[in-house]
Design a protein that fits this description.
By secondary structure, the protein is mainly alpha-helical. It is built from two helices and no strands. This is Flagellar hook protein FlgE.
């Protein structure tokens, strides 16, 4: 399951777009690492890359969540 393209969502604010791009990058790195492991490449660097991608994904998810919360707060202020 892929994450939608940044260019297909032009209404995103810059922090949201940046976080989404980071999520997509992390997802691609995990997929690449998984393919390498499935192909028999048991290099520890592959496992480290997947672990780093997992951390990056979690961080970008938090950034995206924070921007959503801040946007909601701003909308609540104008309501």
């Amino acid at each position: 399951m892929g994450i939608g393209s940044v260019s297909s969502t032009p209404t995103l604010f810059q922090p949201q777009a940046s976080a989404l791009e980071g999520l997509q990058d992390a997802q691609a790195r995990v997929a690449d690492g998984a393919e390498q492991i499935a192909a028999g490449n048991l290099d520890p660097a592959v496992v480290v890359s997947i672990t780093n991608a997992q951390t990056d994904f979690a961080a970008n998810a938090k950034v995206f969540e924070a921007t959503q919360e801040n946007t909601q707060r701003l909308l609540d202020m104008f309501a």
